[in-house]
Amino acid sequence: MSPRPSWTDWQPLALPEPLAAPVLAEVLDGGQSFRWTLEAEGVWQGAWDDCVVRLKSAGDGSLRWAAPQTLAATAPSKLATYLAASVSFSRRADELPWRSDAHLARCLAAFPGLRLLRQPLGETLLCFLCSATKQIVQIRQMVGLLARRHGRELAPGFHRLPTWSELAAVSEENLRACLLGFRARHVAQTAGFLAGHPGWLEGFADLPYADAKARLCELPGVGEKIADCVLLFGAGRFEAFPVDVWILKAMARRYGLEGWTPRQVAHFGRAHFGPAAGLAQQYLFAWERAHGRD
DNA sequence: ATCCAGGTATGCA
DNA sequence: TGCATACCTGGA
């Protein structure tokens, strides 16, 4: 098969709080990203931006990373950004209303140190455009094909996701060949729009949440849920509260919101959980993934 | 075989 | 504003 890169030794990675192996798994493979695979027991391998790394949690909750030798130089700073290493998520979690919300309290206790990733905005947009009415396994397959067929090779056998300017050069037919189905049209149209509006994706930093979200919703195939995912996982906007069918069911069940629309639930979530509502959403999601049938 | 999947856009009351 | 329906397609 493809030649294997030569990997660095394991290096320490500093985070503000420990991250035990099961919680690391939830962070990397719990629906925020679709680009991580379990390489060996407790060893995750993933790619984003121009990075390829392996990650594992040591017994004490400290993290170790390794990278292909050729990519090792930039890995520490890229990892720090990706894992939002400057953010203390335990502190943000403590700001949530767990003292008066028993369900939230048990979610926090079940996944100590749960983090929100800070992924590249463009990649996040692409991945969540592919996510509409698909299961995680299938989304991983789609973006894996997009990377392999249309993304630059970073190291032997490892490809990055195509940039939007690269995607603009890919036909809708070839996107469909990556199993995107009707999402191929959304990706093609968004690529065309972005090609005609240079810098459009970079103009979000200073916009208020509602404006940034409205702006994202101008893109073909982007509605409220996808916009919230892009803002939360790709822009560090923790007030975003994505409501998918699972969160809709979870909120109905745990908070008595039967019959509420996604938009109503999103509004409730932002009001009830506050400025870190998106972190609460991730905890609720993790809980349902683990205890959904209870 | 038939139905559904981590949504969105569109067309009608 | 609110609700139903189409949109692709692999897998249960």
Instruction: Find the structural class using helix and strand composition.
Output: alpha+beta
Q: State mean pLDDT (0 to 100 scale).
A: 96
Q: Helix count, per DSSP?
A: 14
CATH architectural arrangement of one domain: 2-Layer Sandwich
| Net shape | globular
The description of the largest β-sheet is: 5 strands, antiparallel
> What oligomeric state do the depicted chains represent?
single chain
Low-confidence stretches: none
State the strand order across the main sheet.
Answer: 1-5-4-3-2
Tell me the β content: 5-15%
According to DSSP, the number of beta strands is 7
N-to-C span: 44 Å
Order of helices and strands: EHEEEEHHHHHEEHHHHHHHH
Give the radius of gyration.
19 Å
Q: Fraction of residues in helices?
A: 40-55%
> The CATH topology of one domain is what?
TATA-Binding Protein
Please describe what this structure looks like.
This protein is an alpha+beta fold and about 290 residues long. The protein has a domain of about 80 residues: TATA-Binding Protein, CATH 3.30.310. It is built from 14 helices and seven strands. It has a five-stranded antiparallel β-sheet. A hairpin with a 2-residue loop joins strand 3 and strand 4. Helix 4 crosses helix 14, helix 10 packs across helix 11 and helix 13 crosses helix 14. The longest helix has 15 residues. It is globular, with a radius of gyration of 19 Å. The protein binds a DNA duplex (13 and 12 nucleotides) through helix 6, helix 9, helix 11 and helix 12.
